[in-house]
Amino acid sequence: MDIKVYKPRDWKSHPPYLYEPYGSSVKRAPLKRLVPMKQTLSEITGPVFGHNTVQPGEDDLTTNAGTGTPAMGERLIIVGRLFDEDEKPIPNTLIEIWQANSAGRYQHEVDQHNAPLDPNFTGAGRCVTNDKGEYRFLTIRPGSYPWLNHYNGWRPAHIHLSLFGPSFVTRLVTQFFFPGDPLLPLDPILLSVPSKKARERLIASYAHDVTEPEFALAYRFDIVLRGRDGTPFEEPKR
Amino acid sequence: MKQTPSQTVGPFYSMGLTRTRMNVLAIDSTQGARIRVEGQVLDGDGKPVPDALVEIWQANSYGRYNHADDKQEKPLDPNFMGWGRSGTDKNGCYIFETIKPGSVPGNDESVQAPHLNVCLFARGMLVHAFTRIYFGDEPTNDVDPILSSIKNKARRKTLMAHREETNGKIVYRFDIRLQGENETVFFDM
Lengths: 238, 189
Fold this sequence. Notes:
The structure holds two protein chains of two kinds.
Chain A: E1 35-36, H1 41-44, E2 75-84, E3 94-99, E4 124-128, E5 134-140, E6 145-147, E7 153-155, E8 158-163, E9 172-177, H2 188-191, H3 196-200, E10 205-206, E11 217-220, E12 223-225
Parallel strand pairs in A: 2-11, 2-12
Antiparallel strand pairs in A: 2-5, 3-4, 3-8, 6-7, 8-9, 10-11
Chain B: H1 14-17, E1 34-42, E2 52-57, E3 83-87, E4 93-99, E5 104-105, E6 111-112, E7 115-122, E8 129-135, H2 145-148, H3 153-156, E9 160-166, E10 169-173, E11 176-177, E12 187-188
């Protein structure tokens, strides 16, 4: 069977499994060498979530709690495009996000940080990229919060994202940060990314062109998933 | 363009990723033999990982994936998507209700033994890990090209789910060990 495989994971961009400054990785990082596998039909296929997976309004975290009262915090518009490594847009793929509220607390029973919960904020949203690979969420700026990884440790404000792409091997879970956050150079999770250039790709940029007057600031975060091997260009049209 | 770096799902992924139940792949009208697949995710001390997330992707009972790049002439099952997601509970346990997949082709004219493709996430894992679940009682495992490619034969058994029958229900048990002597085989692909 003829298989058009995907490019390998770029280990110069992704963190290693074991990164000691991030304490939880020590007992949870696979330590044996990964077994190389040539992709098969199982890997080049993957789940497809169409537009009807997501209900209207799921992409608006300021109101999707459904209480009729907007979430507390500074409204933000988050936009971006999803590409593969060959700069080809990835349309029609599911993006799921989750984040802390404006006080730096997650709507989650495990989060015991002494900061207020917001009953009007679920902290989660979903959307599907359009035919140009674009996505858009409306949310509030997440707060920073302390964690016990190290003394006086604080996570910089961030939003988690989960993406599928066209195949099983294009799956990605990541998080993005905000420019100018003084906690960025202190965050072991961000620092686990092996190069400065790659770390910079996790920082959103302020998008004044998308910012809406008298409504909300906007940030842009573009995402790149694994591309397909050996097909960098479309066939030229004759 | 360069790949966007991976980051951990963290401890609170359930608010974003498992708000609704996504671990039941087989509904009443799905074709195929019903199975339950369950197990524990264990860390380097053998302790349960209560904040792991297991995702599976599989072929239908005929051995066809519900995806445009699977161009085989086998039937599609309109009542089977083939994907599921289960968070682990406080005991590190995940569970799926699904059907046993058929065999799918491998590369170079080979045939792969029935298997589930697994993508594993957890707090503490900065990058997801790929593995596979094979069915321990499946005779074609011996000729599966991916299993055969694992040079250390002893490690192949870490990919075998063990069949059990409880109250007439077929259960395959598959534990995932992140570290240690019996560390599960994880793939780079």
